[in-house]
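User: I'm writing a tutorial on reading structure tokens. Could you give me a worked example: one chain, its sequence, then its tokens, then a sentence or two explaining what the tokens reveal?
Assistant: Sure. Here is the example chain.
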Amino acid sequence: MDILNIVAETGGERIDRFLSGNLGDLSRSYIQKLLKEGHIEADGKPVKANYKVSPGEEITVRLPEPENTEILPEDIPLDILYEDDDILVVNKPKGMVVHPSAGHSSHTLVNALMFHCKDRLSGINGVLRPGIVHRIDKDTTGSLLVCKNDHAHQVLAEQLKEHSITRRYHAVVHGNLKEDAGTVSAPIGRHPTDRKKMSTRAVHARSAVTHYRVLERFGDYTYIECELETGRTHQIRVHMASIGHPILGDAVYGPARCPFRLQGQTLHAKTLGILHPATGEYMEFDAPLPEYFRKLLDTLRRKNKLAL
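And here are its predicted structure tokens:
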């Protein structure tokens, strides 16, 4: 059974609306079904659909295992940046879904992890997400942390909750940023009309903070580094689009047409820093830029040089 925990930052909202706005993968009708069956709790007590959340409450959602769900190990090569008895850090390639879901029951990172790790993965997030403590989008590349046991998962989940994990991304955005560095502080929630998107204009949103700095300028485009203070769904993509600089290749939050041959957004989870769950030692991992990203930078540098 998957267990999801969310801390309410504001109050007064019906719990089904609150969860549908914060859990984009679950429909409101399914959430109401879970409420009716007693699978949702507020501070450890089962609640009904008319319950209104209070600030600071921890909402727990228990997702029953789908019937006849069998996630099979698959011999898919992994680019492993680090591995020990407690954790695994992989460099996720573009186009790979992190865990099975509707429409993606195979060829996911979890299928590959099950083959590589056998039965040595944490079980806290259930059969569909063994070992997964956080995730990155299908077309985002880079560092992803995997837990091999429940103790490691609990420790690192707490670090995520406290925003103490270092997460630095590299991206190329449209336009020429005015400042060399800045911060976007804008709450993010489910888009009011398009449930597949997130938005800074959502009625029910959670605080989100992204720090950015310019690495290189190319006139019409800017190469930047973003550091996450929080970790909301699509956070960097939404925040950069909200200030008029969507990520190059992001057809969801940016222009539909891209002048370069790209597969999704140019976003790479480059640096990941954690306190090791067993030793307490600070460790930092760096995922090298993928080939497509390096080639794009070379192309932009050549064009920029010719324009000077």
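What the tokens reveal: The first strand starts at residue 2 and ends at 7. Residues 273 and 284 are 4 Å apart (CA to CA).
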